[in-house]
Amino acid sequence: MSELTESNIEEMRLHLEKWRADKVEQTYIPDLDARRHEIRQEMLVFLDRFINGEIDLDQFRTTFDRQTRARFETV
After folding, report:
1. Percent above pLDDT 90 for the chain
2. Do the domain assignments include residue 13?
C-alpha cells in the first residue's frame, strides 16, 4: 500500500472543496444513486422472471441487450 503524501492530501482537500462548492454535483450524486437503485430493482425482477422460466433465453438476451444499451448506460 502506498503512503499518502502531503501533495496527495492537498489534492484531495482541493477536490473536496470544489465539490462542496458545486451544488449541482451535490444533487447529481443522490439522483444518480436513486436511479441506480430503481434500475437494480428492475433488473432483479427481470432476472427473477428468467430464473422462474417466465421468459426464455433468447428473450432474456434480447431484452437485456436492449435495456443495457438504452437505459442502463445512462447511469
Report:
1. 48
2. no
Within-domain flag for 54? yes
Report which of 40, 46, 42 is spatially closest to residue 60, judged by C-alpha positions.
Answer: 46
Q: What residue numbers bound the domain in which 43 lies?
A: 23-74
Domain count, the chain: 1
Contact (CB, 8 A) for 71 and 39:
yes
Q: What is the pTM of this model?
A: 0.57
Q: Report d(CA 3, CA 9) in Å as an integer.
A: 10
Give the chain's largest Cα–Cα span: 57
Rounded to whole angstroms, how far apart are CA atoms 75 and 72? 6
